[in-house]
Structure formats: C-alpha cells, structure tokens
Design goal:
Helices cover about 40% and strands about 15% of the residues. The chain has 15 helices and 14 strands. The strands form two sheets. The protein has a seven-stranded parallel beta sheet with strand order 3-4-2-5-6-1-7, with helices on both faces. A seven-stranded parallel beta sheet has the order 10-11-9-12-13-8-14, with helices on both faces. The longest helix has 15 residues. It has about 375 residues and is an alpha/beta fold. Helix 3 crosses helix 4, helix 6 crosses helix 8 and helix 14 packs across helix 15. The chain is globular, with a radius of gyration of 22 Å. The chain has two domains: about 210 residues, 3-Layer(aba) Sandwich (Rossmann fold); about 160 residues, Rossmann fold (3-Layer(aba) Sandwich).
Amino acid sequence: MSFSQLGLTATLIKALSAQGYKEAYPIQLQAIPAILKGKDVLGIAQTGSGKTASFVLPILQQFQSKPTTKNRFIKALILVPTRELAVQVGDVFKQFAEAMPRKVKAMSVFGGASINTQMMNLQGVEILVATPGRLLDLVDANAMNLSEIDILVLDEADKMLNMGFKDEMASVFKLLPEKRQNLLFSATLGKEINNITEILLHNPVKIQVEEEQQNLDLITQQCYHVTEDRKGPLLRYLIKEQDMKQVLVFASSIHRADGVVEKLKKHGIEAAAMHSKKSQGARTDALANFKSGKLKVLVATDLASRGIDIQFLPHVINYELPRSPKDYIHRIGRTGRASSAGTAISLVSEEEEHHFSVIEKKMGKKVAVTETNELDLKGY
C-alpha cells in the first residue's frame, strides 16, 4: 500500500519518494494511522521491519501543528538501548525534519560522548532520542525538562530490559507528565514487556508483525568451503571479483575484526572495524561512512552489530560462524531487510562444517556449497 493512503502530508510523501521509500511495510500500515490519531501503540516486530519510520513520520507530522516549545522543554522522548541505535533513529528524524515546513530540532544523546557538549546542544531541541542512563545524567544536571512530554517512545524495549535498564526506565517514567501518548516497540512480547505495557499503555492499538522467516526467503545464502589460512584471500577475492559496493563482515572477536581490516586495507580495500574497544566517535564515524557509501567494508562483532540497520544492505559475509543458529539468523538478517533482497555468504572451514550443518537444520534450509580448493587466490 502507498504511503499516501496512510494520512501523511504531501510534504512527507515527497520526502519518502526522494529517499527511495516506495510502499509502506506492514508495521507502518497499522502504526502510522493509529499514531496520527493520537492512540497508544504496542508494536511487536523484528529489527529491519520498518518500525523506525512508522513512528518518526507521524511524530514529525504531529509537530507541524504544535506551537514552538519553551527552550529545553522536550516534547517527544524516544528511549533506545544502544548508542548506535540512538544515532540511527536521530538521523532518521533529522533526515525527514529537513523537509518539513515547521523546522523541528531533533537530537541524540548517549554515554561515551561529552556530556558538556550535549548539554550545550540541547538548546531548542524538541525531539530527543536518548539512552536511559545519559538521559538521567542530563536531567540531574538540569540540562532539560521532561514535564511537558507529549509523546514517549520505547524503541526495542525488550533489549532495554535485557540490558538491565529496568530501574533507569522506571526513574524516567516518574519524571514524565501523566497525560501523554505512549508508543512501545519490541521484537518480542514477554512477561516483562507485558508488565510495562500494563503500566504505560492505555487501550493501545496492538500490532504484531512476524517477518524474520519471510526475510530469510529474500536472502540468497551461499557457503564457501575454505581452509582457515585461505579465508582472508577468499574474502578479498569475493569482494573484488563480485564488485561488492557495501559489505558487512562478521568476525568472532575484536582481535579478529582488527586483523581482517588491516589485511583488507593492505590490499587496497577501504575498511573499518566496529567493536566495543573502539571509541564512540570512531564507531559513529565508521557507521556513518559505511551507510553513506564512503566505506566499502565494515567488519563488526556481534555485539556491535546490534545498532546497524541499513535498509538496502546488499551483502553480509560471515568470516567466522557465530555460536548459535539464532545469532546466524540475526547476522544474515542485516541484509534482506523488509522487501529488499540480499546475499549472505559464509566462509566455512573444515572445523566449522558440522556447526554449519546444525545451523542449516535449525533453519530448515540447505545452503548451496562452493568448493574453493582449486580456486587460484594468489595475489589476494
């Protein structure tokens, strides 16, 4: 269904078209009209299902009819679990806010960055995307006021609970006005999510979209049997021979990720690593350059990959297999997002073959295998 049928303004429709959005995804079809009507929403959908736009678009549209707020009085608060997701959601707000007649200032705040700089930049902010801990730090410093919040969004609420933010979230809720619109998005619907739903949401519109298996059908999976010592040359061969423009490579450890990046650079392939030992600035720059196309290869560990959400990512490569089939599905699910096809490649050594067969069994799907013993990788 077209976005024009969801009640969005012509300005937003034009902005969506310019950004390459063609048809609304299932979560957007149900969430956007409900949010525009001021209803509370409970959305259960996997990462990559289009949920960010499903709340960004109607929130920005609602702000067009709101008066400009008092300085440092936030009107819409989006709580997220990770720094990378905070940046990503903030970027989507800024991207569409630029097209709106009434300019709305949105900002992301998170730990690991200068709190003084964030305090200064909060001037004039109306929409704030924040991790819970840094938000409370800023409140304690009297850098903002949350007493006039109109809209609260909990994005990836299940991850916030799993990462131990329950107490911080409870502290934030106490600072908010009782009357507001609440939007909760989560990949799963467990006991703790139900508990928060009962506390926060009032007669919510409930939306549940199961897309993970559907997304797998959009992904062309390939397996290359290769000895451990030939993995590096094979990776570089595939990137060059298939003229890959944007590749997310998964490594099992920080040390391995750095080593893969070093070798890629030595062979003339622009690459960067993304893991927990990198500074927040380095991680933000690497992700921004990767998403914009300035960086061809991003090598990430599983933990760091949680904030990577790129709508049209064409290639994912498993340099090493993850520990569980669930993690494998999460990895390859970085491509094949929503309605976009993608390719997922796994470099499987002899020691990993049994583990890969377990992954195939759990998926209920066999992956095409290419043998590489005869492949000439000299020079790669």
